[in-house]
Specification:
Elements (H helix, E strand, L loop, with lengths): L2 E2 L1 H8 L3 H9 L7 E3 L2 E5 L12 H9 L1
Antiparallel strand pairs: 1-3, 2-3
Helix pairs in contact: 1-2
Length: 64
């Protein structure tokens, strides 16, 4: 299985590395592993939903 680093996942999902780290710590990414001080995120994992917005609000934001 291929894994991404925090930086690679942040670039892939278009968010900050700090937000990806938050998702890892909060357990919102399935299959994530911690090796020493590095998080390994499965490459085929989808970006977790942003809980700061309700589902319909995030659709409105995307559609402008």
């Amino acid at each position: 299985m291929d894994y991404l680093t925090i930086k690679e996942a942040a670039e892939k999902w278009g968010i900050s590395g700090r937000m990806v780290t938050y998702y890892c710590v909060d357990g919102r990414i399935d299959g994530v592993m911690r090796k020493g001080n590095m998080w390994l995120i499965p490459a085929d994992t989808e970006k977790p939903a942003d809980k700061r917005y309700k589902a319909h609000e995030s659709e409105d934001i995307k559609n402008g």
